[in-house]
C-alpha cells in the first residue's frame, strides 16, 4: 500500500480553475506553518465575492493579532467561525473523514459527516454534526446520538434539486457495510426526502429529531432562486439554523449539466436570506452557515459581513490535506488518497493529514483575526452583518442592491470568452461515447465565475426545487421532455432539432438515423428518402416546410434581429417562426424573449411555434435556458456533433449520434427534475421565473425579463 505523507507537486493547470495554483499555494503555506500568510488578496476574477472589497484594507499581518475569533453556534462554543464541510464516507476514503473530525475536536471548531453513514472512528469525535439525508444511508437512532448536532440535508450547491451520487466503483465493502447498500452499485439518493414534500413536513422532521435527540438541528439547502423564502420557512419551522451551499461548492460526484447550470452564488444567497430574516424579525438565535468556494479568511470575513454567522470550508480543507484539483474524485483514482476508492492501494497518513489540517485551521483563524484588527473590530461578532464596511467594484446596479452594499456600477459586456472551451469539448466527447449525463467532481468551473461567458445564456442559472416545493427525481420518475409542434404534426421526444444542411454525408446519415430512432427531427434543405417524417425541409417533402419567404402553412425563417420582432406581428396562416442567429445581428436570447413576450401580450402566443436556431448553441444547458426564455424548440448545428467527435474515431457514427441525442434528452430531464418540472413543454417554455442572472448588465436583464440572482 502506498502511504501519502507529504504534498504532491501541483500539476500545471491547462484550464481555468477557481482553485488556482496561487490559491492552493496560499492554503499550503497556512497548512505547513500554522501562521497567517496573506489577507485581502486581489484576485482577478468575475466572481461577485472577488469584486466585493472592504472599504479600508490594510494587508499588514501580525502573528499575534488582538481580535478574538471566538463565537457560539446554537449554544456550542467555537474557537473560530469554521465548519469543516459535510463530506461523506465514500466520497472521501476513510482516513480523511477521521482527520477532519479529529481536527475539529483539537481546534474547537465543528465538522459535518456528510450523508454516507458514520465511520466508527469518526463516531468517537464530539464536535461533529451528523447528517440526515434523503437516502438515510446507515442512519439510525444510535448514529444520530453521536456528536453535537444534526443536519437535515435537503440540497447541496454542486447538485441542487437532485440527490447525492456515489458511483458504484467506489462502493467497496467498507462503504457497503457503513451505508448498508450492495457492493459495486451506484448509491444515488432520492432528489426529495420522500417524507418531506412541504415546509410543514420539514417542520415535523425538525421537531421529531429535536425531541428524539435533544440536539440542535440545522437544515442544509442549496443556494437557489427562492433562497430567502426557503430560509424564512426553515426558521419558522423551528430549526436552529441553516447551511446554505452556494453554486460552485465541491462534491465527490455530480452531473456536469447540473453542476454548471443550476444554483446561485453563496454571497447573493447569504445577503438576501439575512435581509429577509431581519425584516421578518427572525434573525436572533437563528444561525446561517455559508458554504461554497470559501477560499480564504478574506472570503470568510466578507460573507460574515454580508450576514453569515459561520463559514463552511470543504474543498479548502481537502487542499490543506493535499488535494491537487485533478477532478477525479468520482472515479476513485485520487492521487493524494483523499477521495480514492478503498481498495488497499493507497491511503493518506493520518498523522500527516491531521498536522496540516490543524495548522491550516490555526493559520486561517489568525488571518481572520488580522482582518478584524485591520477593520478596527475586537471580535468576530462585531463583523456580523456589517455591510457598511463593504464596497462593490465592477458589479451591476441590481447585484449591488441584492448585496445591500455601496459600489461602483459597471455594465459588463456579455461576450468575454471562447465559445468552445476545451472542457466543453471533452464533455461532449464523453457524452457521445456513453450516452448518459457526464459525471464529474469538485466545484463548477462554468462561466461567469471561472470561465468567461461566451454568450448571454452563460450569465443565467436555472432553479433547483427544495423545501417550498419538491424536486422530481429523474432517476426514479419519468419526466416528459417531449414537444408537439405545428399543431401536433411534429412530435419531438426532446426540444432539439439538428440542422444537417452542409453536413458531410456520413454525419448527415448518422444524425438522421439517430433522430428517427429517438423521435427527434432534422432541419434540412432536401428531404432524404426514409426520413420524410422527421424532416423540416425546404423542398416541402418532409413533415413540414420552411421558407425564407412567407408561404401559408410553412415555417418562416427570420434573422435574429429587431426587425424580426416587428415582422412576426404581421404574419398569419403559418405554424411558426424559426429565428436564425446566424442570419441576424442580435443575440438569439434577446430576440426569442422579445418575440415570446410580444406574442403573449397580444394573446396569440399559443398559435405559433417559436424555434431558436444557431450554430452557436452548444449543449443541453443552452437548450434548456432558451426554452425557458420562450423557445418551443431549438435547432442546433451538426457542427456540435463534429465538436463532440473531436480527434477521436469516426467509426460507428450512428451510435455516437444516438448517444448525443439520448444524452441531451437525459440531461434536459435532469435539469427539469431539479427545477421541479414534470412536463417541459407545458411548464418550462417561456418560464423565466426558473432563471436567475448572475451580475448580467441591467440592459439585458430588462430585455430578457429575468430577475437578478438573490432578488425576491
From TrEMBL:
Keywords: Amino-acid biosynthesis, Flavoprotein, FMN, Glutamate biosynthesis, NADP, Oxidoreductase
EC number, UniProt record: 1.4.1.13
Known cofactor(s): FMN
GO BP terms, alphabetized: glutamate biosynthetic process
GO molecular function: glutamate synthase (NADPH) activity
A Pfam family this chain is assigned to: Glu_syn_central
The Glutamate synthase domain, residue ranges: 75-377
Top-level EC class as recorded in UniProt: oxidoreductase
Similarity-based family: Belongs to the glutamate synthase family.
The name this protein goes by in its record: Archaeal glutamate synthase [NADPH]
Highest classification ranks of the organism: Archaea, Thermoproteota, Thermoprotei, Sulfolobales, Sulfolobaceae
Amino acid at each position: 500500500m502506498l502511504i501519502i505523507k507529504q504534498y504532491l507537486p501541483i500539476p500545471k493547470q491547462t484550464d481555468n480553475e477557481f482553485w488556482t495554483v496561487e490559491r492552493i499555494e496560499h492554503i499550503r503555506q497556512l497548512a505547513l506553518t500554522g501562521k497567517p500568510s496573506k489577507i485581502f488578496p486581489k484576485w482577478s476574477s468575475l466572481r461577485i465575492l472577488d469584486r466585493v472589497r472592504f472599504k479600508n484594507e490594510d494587508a499588514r499581518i501580525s502573528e499575534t493579532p488582538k481580535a478574538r475569533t471566538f463565537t457560539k453556534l446554537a449554544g456550542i462554543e467555537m474557537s473560530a467561525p469554521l465548519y469543516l464541510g459535510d463530506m461523506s464516507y465514500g466520497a472521501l476514503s476513510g482516513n480523511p473523514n477521521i482527520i477532519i473530525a479529529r481536527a475539529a475536536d483539537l481546534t474547537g471548531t465543528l465538522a459535518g459527516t456528510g450523508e454516507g453513514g458514520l465511520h466508527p472512528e469518526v463516531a468517537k469525535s464530539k464536535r461533529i454534526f451528523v447528517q440526515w439525508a434523503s437516502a438515510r444511508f446507515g442512519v439510525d437512532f444510535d448514529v444520530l446520538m453521536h456528536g453535537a448536532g444534526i443536519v437535515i440535508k435537503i440540497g447541496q450547491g454542486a447538485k441542487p434539486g437532485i440527490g447525492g451520487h456515489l458511483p458504484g466503483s467506489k462502493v467497496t465493502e467498507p462503504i457497503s457495510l457503513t451505508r448498508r447498500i450492495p457492493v459495486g452499485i451506484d448509491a444515488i439518493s432520492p432528489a426529495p426526502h420522500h417524507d418531506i414534500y412541504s415546509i410543514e413536513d420539514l417542520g415535523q422532521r425538525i421537531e421529531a429529531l429535536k425531541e428524539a435527540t435533544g440536539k440542535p438541528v440545522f437544515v442544509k439547502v442549496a443556494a437557489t432562486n427562492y433562497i430567502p423564502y426557503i430560509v424564512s420557512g426553515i426558521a419558522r419551522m423551528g430549526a436552529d439554523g441553516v447551511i446554505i451551499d452556494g453554486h460552485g461548492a465541491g462534491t465527490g460526484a455530480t452531473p456536469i449539466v447540473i453542476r454548471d447550470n443550476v444554483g446561485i452564488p453563496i454571497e447573493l444567497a447569504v445577503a438576501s436570506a439575512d435581509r429577509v430574516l431581519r425584516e421578518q424579525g427572525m434573525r436572533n438565535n437563528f444561525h446561517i452557515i455559508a458554504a461554497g468556494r470559501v477560499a480564504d479568511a478574506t472570503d470568510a470575513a466578507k460573507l460574515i459581513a454580508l450576514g453569515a454567522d459561520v463559514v463552511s470550508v470543504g474543498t479548502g480543507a481537502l487542499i490543506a490535506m493535499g488535494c491537487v484539483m485533478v477532478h477525479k474524485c468520482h472515479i476513485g483514482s485520487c492521487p493524494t488518497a483523499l477521495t480514492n476508492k478503498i481498495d488497499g492501494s493507497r491511503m493518506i497518513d493520518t498523522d500527516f493529514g491531521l498536522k496540516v489540517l490543524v495548522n491550516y485551521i490555526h493559520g486561517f483563524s489568525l488571518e481572520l483575526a488580522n482582518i478584524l484588527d485591520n477593520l478596527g473590530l475586537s471580535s468576530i461578532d462585531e463583523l456580523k452583518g456589517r455591510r457598511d464596511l463593504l464596497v462593490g467594484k465592477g458589479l451591476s446596479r441590481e447585484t449591488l442592491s441584492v448585496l445591500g452594499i455601496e459600489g461602483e456600477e459597471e455594465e459588463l459586456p456579455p461576450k468575454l470568452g471562447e465559445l468552445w472551451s476545451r472542457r466543453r469539448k471533452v464533455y461532449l466527447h464523453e457524452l457521445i461515447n456513453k450516452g448518459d449525463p457526464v459525471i464529474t467532481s469538485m466545484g463548477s468551473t462554468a462561466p461567469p465565475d471561472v470561465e468567461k461567458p461566451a454568450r448571454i445564456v452563460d450569465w443565467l442559472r436555472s432553479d433547483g426545487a427544495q423545501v417550498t416545493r419538491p424536486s422530481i427525481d429523474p432517476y426514479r420518475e419519468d419526466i416528459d421532455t417531449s414537444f408537439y409542434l405545428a399543431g401536433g404534426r411534429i412530435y419531438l421526444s426532446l426540444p432539439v432539432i439538428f440542422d444537417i444542411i452542409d453536413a458531410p454525408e456520413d454525419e448527415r446519415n448518422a444524425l438522421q438515423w439517430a433522430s428517427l430512432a429517438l423521435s427527434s427531427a432534422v432541419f434540412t434543405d432536401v428531404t432524404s428518402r426514409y426520413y420524410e417524417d422527421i424532416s423540416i425541409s425546404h423542398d416541402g417533402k418532409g413533415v413540414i416546410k420552411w421558407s425564407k419567404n412567407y408561404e401559408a402553412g410553412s415555417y418562416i425563417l427570420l434573422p435574429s434581429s429587431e426587425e424580426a420582432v416587428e415582422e412576426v406581428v404581421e404574419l398569419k396562416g403559418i405554424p411558426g417562426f424559426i429565428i436564425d442567429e446566424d442570419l441576424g445581428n442580435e443575440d438569439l436570447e434577446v430576440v426569442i424573449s422579445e418575440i415570446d413576450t410580444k406574442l403573449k401580450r397580444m394573446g396569440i402566443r399559443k398559435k405559433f411555434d417559436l424555434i431558436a436556431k444557431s450554430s452557436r448553441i452548444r449543449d443541453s444547458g443552452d437548450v434548456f435556458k432558451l426554452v425557458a426564455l420562450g423557445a418551443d424548440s431549438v435547432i442546433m448545428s451538426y457542427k456540435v456533433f463534429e465538436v463532440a467527435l473531436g480527434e477521436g474515431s469516426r467509426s460507428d457514427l450512428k451510435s455516437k449520434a444516438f448517444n448525443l441525442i439520448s444524452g441531451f434528452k437525459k440531461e434536459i430531464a435532469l435539469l427539469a427534475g431539479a427545477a421541479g418540472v414534470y412536463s417541459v413543454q407545458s411548464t418550462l417554455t417561456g418560464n423565466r421565473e426558473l432563471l436567475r442572472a448572475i451580475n448580467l448588465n441591467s440592459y439585458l436583464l430588462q430585455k430578457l425579463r429575468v430577475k437578478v440572482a438573490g432578488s425576491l
